[in-house]
Design goal:
Elements: H1 17-29, E1 30-34, E2 40-46, H2 49-58, E3 65-68, E4 78-84, H3 86-94, H4 115-126, E5 127-135, E6 144-151, H5 156-167, E7 175-179, E8 182-187, H6 189-199, H7 204-207, H8 211-227
Antiparallel strand pairs: 1-2, 2-4, 3-4, 5-6, 6-8, 7-8
Helix pairs in contact: 1-4, 6-8
Pfam family, one: LAGLIDADG_3
GO molecular function, one term: endonuclease activity
Protein name: DOD-type homing endonuclease domain-containing protein
């Protein structure tokens, strides 16, 4: 017999650290689907199955995590968590999300105290850490260590709004660059330290965060600061 599906249907109805983290992750790697039968689905995708399992647990779901078919053989294996829920679809619509949101994404009106949780969720989806211990420049005799933290999105207004929120948490620099697939705000060492402090400041961060990204940023900051002593 089929296993009855479980889900906290009101998950996106009330602000909480876990709700806002999942909202941030959805903004990065989620989608809303309305099929021909007018059934409504919410889908999360990731190359990190562990992250989808954490999301599934916190939203009270027992839906199966599936492997997505690769479009190209060289690509990493991708996983998806697809949940049918009219309540979720309506709540996410109320928060400003739409189908095909990659270029139309706008930052929801999130309570300020929950902004760090949203940023951490978005970072786990569409954030990246770049650290090079010996980057060579033509204008310098010695190589230089470079640390950059960045986010990506097809929506420039979304990133600009997010950037304004980051300034309230001492992320004061950075530059916004146009890339082939969208836009990319990039932050150097000092701002990366502020981002780390912002995203991982609570106990909630240990439960709802992607360990490999957290570790990579933590180790990069530690190594760079040791090199500058």
């Amino acid at each position: 017999m089929p296993v009855p599906k479980r889900l906290n249907q009101q998950f996106f109805s009330t602000w909480s650290p876990s709700m806002v983290y999942v909202l941030g992750y959805f903004a990065a790697d989620g989608s809303m689907i309305l099929n021909k039968r007018v059934a409504r689905f919410i889908e999360f995708t990731s190359i990190d199955r562990d992250l989808l399992e954490r999301v599934s647990h916190v939203v009270g779901s027992n839906h199966k995590i599936q492997i997505r078919k690769k479009r190209r053989e060289a690509w990493n294996t991708q996983y998806r968590l697809q949940i049918g829920s009219k309540a979720w679809f309506e709540d996410l619509s109320r928060l400003g999300f739409t189908q095909g949101k990659s270029t139309s994404l706008m930052l929801p009106n999130i309570p300020k105290k929950h902004i760090p949780d949203f940023v951490r969720g978005y970072f786990d989806g569409d954030g990246c850490v770049y650290f090079n211990k010996e980057l060579h420049f033509a204008s310098r005799k010695k190589p230089r260590a470079i640390l950059s933290t960045l986010f990506t999105s097809g929506s420039k207004p979304f990133l600009e709004s997010l950037w304004k929120q980051l300034k309230d948490h001492d992320v004061l620099g950075g530059s916004l660059q146009k890339k082939q697939r969208g836009f990319e705000p990039r932050f150097s060492h000092k701002d990366s330290v502020a981002l780390h402090r912002m995203m991982y400041h609570t106990d909630q961060a240990s439960e709802l965060s992607l360990p490999r990204k957290r570790l990579k940023l933590t180790m990069a900051i530690r190594d760079l600061e040791k090199m500058r002593e």
